[in-house]
Amino acid sequence: MNVIISNKYQSMLQTLEIDVIKSLNGEFEVDDIVNQFQNFFFQRMILDITALKNYRDIKTLQKLSISLDMDKVILLLDESAEGTSSDYLSKLISMGIYNFTKNVEGIMYLYNNPNSYRDVAHIQQLDLTSTQDVVVEKYESTVTGTRIIGVKNVTKQSGSTTFTYMVKKQLEKNYSVVAIEVNKNDYRYFNDKNLVSTTSLEVGNVVARYTDKDIILIDINDSIQAEQICHDVIYLVEPSIIKLNKLMFLNNKAFSNLKGKKVVLNQSVLNKKDVLDFEYEAGVKVFYNMPPLDEREKSIHTLNAFLSRLGFNKQQSEEQ
Q1: CA dihedral in degrees (31, 36, 38, 39; nearest 10)?
Q2: Rounded to whole angstroms, how far apart are CA atoms 96 and 175?
Q3: If pLDDT is split at 50, 70 and 90, which confidence band does 316 have?
Q4: Cα–Cα distance for residue pair 203/186, rounded to 1 Å
Q5: Inter-CA distances, 102 with 29, 45, 83, Å
Q6: Is the separation of the CB atoms in 62 and 55 below 8 Å?
Q7: Alpha carbon distance 129, 165 (integer Å)
């Protein structure tokens, strides 16, 4: 079932031939929408952008993208020059908002064929602003000895936040480490000064601020900017049947995009034969099969073995 939130384009959205479980009309604070739908199950949300107060301020959309699953949201844009400019659209894409359109036909297409980054990348590439170029150039010229490793969920909610935190705890026994999460604020629950939360627009500057560290870990959360500045990216897949089926339903080419990359089965109970079967069916090589971890343990052998595979020999010597 679906949600429709309308304002200026209410009459247009009333013509949609979809099942609707909840419909709102008017102008709303972004916090009101987040509070009402953050834990509300829906298949798709059709959101008239004019229903958001201050929608021309990109921070309003940023707040929405942090709190809701934007893969399930279709954004109906207005006709204003500001709201449909290449700069505005590029910023939407940077926040993981890929499904936007200006008409009913576009809504129905995205309803049945949701976009991935690949489908909208050309829009962002047309408007890589000079500010973004400077950030990347600054990072590349100043980060020499620091190794930057990203962690990204492939299947939904595969544990990237906790995984990154546990890797940080294990590494900081022998290295100076900071962990950065992008477009979320979950690190506040760990009460750790070496955990930093930021946004896609600021991640380059934040990374440059920690170039004195041996290792920077980044919980990517669909941030294109964050992914691009990593030396290595760990792609987490939780190999449960429901998670894998949901992934393939949303993007049946998900695994073909992971060929040659570091795929980690996280929270996995698969045995060696199961892993071989998974590799055959998915067409990808598994970098590591990580079982469920106990975050209260001080030293975890399998996590040390994983870090050794990444090239952290100090972790290996500690186990020996």
Answers
A1: 160
A2: 32
A3: very low
A4: 16
A5: 22, 15, 11
A6: no
A7: 32
> 28-60: per-residue pLDDT in tens?
999 999 999 988 888 899 999 999 999 988 888
Residue whose tokens read 């393939």: 248
40 is written with which tokens?
């509300």
Pairing relationship of beta strands 73-76 and 2-6 according to DSSP bridges: unpaired
- Name the nearest CA neighbour of 293 among 186, 184, 185, 158: 158
Q: Which residues contact 82 (CB under 8 A, 6 or more apart)?
A: 56, 88
- By the 10 Å C-beta count (0-12 exposed, 13-18 middle, 19+ buried), 49 is classed as buried
Q: If you write DSSP's letter for every residue of 91-129 in order, what string do you get?
A: HHHHTT---EESSHHHHHHHHHS---HHHHHHHHHTT--
Task: Tell me the two tokens of residue 48.
Answer: 């008239």
Helices and strands counted in the chain (H then E): 14, 12
- Domains of the chain listed by start with CATH number: 2-128 (3.40.50.2300), 132-319 (3.40.50.300)
At residue 81, what is the residue type? A
Q: pTM of the predicted model, to two decimals? A: 0.56
At 145-194, the pLDDT tens digits run 689 999 999 998 888 999 999 999 999 989 999 999 999 888 888 888 88
CA distance 214 to 189: 24
Structure tokens at 82: 């500001």
Sign of CA dihedral 167, 169, 174, 177: positive
150: left (phi over 0), alpha (psi -120 to 50) or beta: beta
